[in-house]
Amino acid sequence: MRRYARLYYLFAKNHLKVMMEYRVDFLIGILSVALQQFAGVFFLSVVFGHIQNLNGWTFYELLFIYAIAACGRSIHHIFFDNLWTLGWQYIKPGQLDRLLIRPINPFFHVCADRLQQDGFGQLLIGSVILWTSVSHLDLTWGAGEILMLLLLIFSSGVLFVAINLFFAALSFWMTDSMPVLWAVFNLSEFARFPLTIYHKGLQFFLTWIIPYGFTAFLPAAWFLDREGYAYVAAAAPITAAAAMALAYSVWLLGLKNYSSTGS
């Protein structure tokens, strides 16, 4: 573990050195993601300028859901964003061969190849939105609640990684699963809103089939104690661990069946 921590530090350090050679691009990347998050909040504020609540959910409750999603997604964005490129950058051109002959875990190598600095903008804005929403909600905070919040945000991040890894690993059979990966990832936008506003079939799908519900709505429901979802939300860490185990198993199966392009 210490070896991989040291290796990741070296990978990240070298990547940041390269990024800082183009400091304007570096800052634009961070600011662009931050502005994207602000655009989402602005959209919510416009909607709630015309309504008092959304199926019983207030503006700051939706901000709370939105903030957990942003913070959880930032973990994936910063440390695992390179999974998006697995098909077209590693498998299709045969670049994965280069990683397989090195004495380190190839999954670690793919992820460590790029530290996505844009994700820091997402984390920053997510944290600001989280602080703003919490300050307007009648919630009791103690050490236990803070630790639970951090655990649920971490679980949210692991779920984003697991779902992306599962569908990115399909590239071992499809050569490039980017269209499928992108389509599935877009479903996470539904989880930024209360699942109770959707049809029960979609609620079930986003909770137990592609569990994006555990990345935002259900963790928020645990604190807000709404609609009886608090007990389901407590299963978020277990769900995240199970999803990650399944996704990594698919990754290993893909590696076992991988054959080079020969180019």
Structure description:
- By secondary structure, the chain is an all-alpha fold.
- 70% of the residues lie in helices and 0% in strands.
- The protein has 14 helices and no strands.
- The model has no long low-confidence stretch (mean pLDDT 90).
Question: What distinguishing features does this structure have?
Answer:
14 helices; mainly alpha; 263 residues; 0% strand; globular
Short description:
With about 260 residues, this protein is mostly helical. About 70% of the residues lie in helices and about 0% in strands. It has helices at about 1-20, 25-50, 60-80, 85-90, 95-100, 105-110, 120-135, 145-170, 170-175, 180-185, 200-210, 215-225, 230-235, 235-255.
Secondary structure topology:
Blueprint: H1 2-20, H2 23-48, H3 59-79, H4 86-91, H5 96-100, H6 106-112, H7 118-135, H8 143-168, H9 171-174, H10 178-186, H11 200-209, H12 217-224, H13 230-233, H14 236-256
Helix pairs in contact: 2-3, 2-7, 3-7, 3-8, 3-12, 8-10, 8-14
Q: What percentage of residues falls in helices of 4 or more residues?
A: 55-70%
List the total number of helices.
14
Order of helices and strands: HHHHHHHHHHHHHH
Strand content: under 5%
Mean model confidence by pLDDT = 90
How far is the N terminus from the C terminus? Answer: 34 Å
Helices and strands: which structural class? mainly alpha
Q: Globular, elongated, flat, extended or rod-shaped: what is the shape?
A: globular
| Rg (CA only) | 19 Å
Largest sheet: none
The stretches of 5 or more residues where confidence is low (pLDDT under 50) are: none
Number of strands: 0
